[in-house]
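Protein data sheet
==================
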Amino acid sequence: MKIGAHLSIAGGLQNALLTAAEYGFETVAMFVRNQRQWAIPELTEDAVELFLETRKKTEISPIVGHGSYLVNLAGKTEIRKKSIVATKADLQRVRRLGIEYFVIHPGSNPDTDKGIELIIVGLNGLGDPGTTILLETTAGQGNCIGHRFEHLAKILEGLERPGSFGVCLDTAHIFAAGYDIRSKQAWNATIAEFDATIGIENLHAIHCNDSLKPLGGRADRHAHIGQGEIGMEGFRAIVNDKRVNHVPFILESPKGEREDGESWDKVNADLLRELAG
């Protein structure tokens, strides 16, 4: 089982790799640019070379890139146009950096069926992404698409290059969306539904987060492992499930340090390893 976290690229893309190595992580997630701006700065050859050299030294693999929070492939015309341009530019960066996976939020639209069709058309218009794009499960806040497994299954069914796409399952999100995973029995039922609807072979990454919100709360609020509504037994079931523990486990729990100065990312990762025995 490979465990990592979503880490900062402040000061250079390579810093996410260096921090991951410092924490003893095998994998890492990262933005490939400032995720809160439409502007996409040039990615220099020097930056690419430094990133690739750092990766060779740290042996971090796989790397999971993450798209901008501004992107909405199901949005209104102007936002959707900007989202497609931004996603194409991000994919170009991902290819140059040799990143294996690129996670995006499916999109948001008050008309779910129309939104799904817009997402399908947008993704098909990207051409060959040169990496594996992962659609992330969502908590169901507002008009977000992807809080039901059926949404993601329908998108995948409409894609012209199905081998270039997959799913990233976020534990906090699916719990808030109404899928119970608080026990081994509950997890088994939910992952069986995932398999029947989407196909377990399409699962390529797991965002491992506890949830501050209750089951079905439809709000995206993450907590440290075992300190939220999912609890320890749910995560024990997940990390010991041979059907899924071959994919990278990425923490997106709250940042900062514990009172003893230990990074919460490392604390949560160590706890997942402990639960896995």
About this structure: The mean pLDDT is 97.
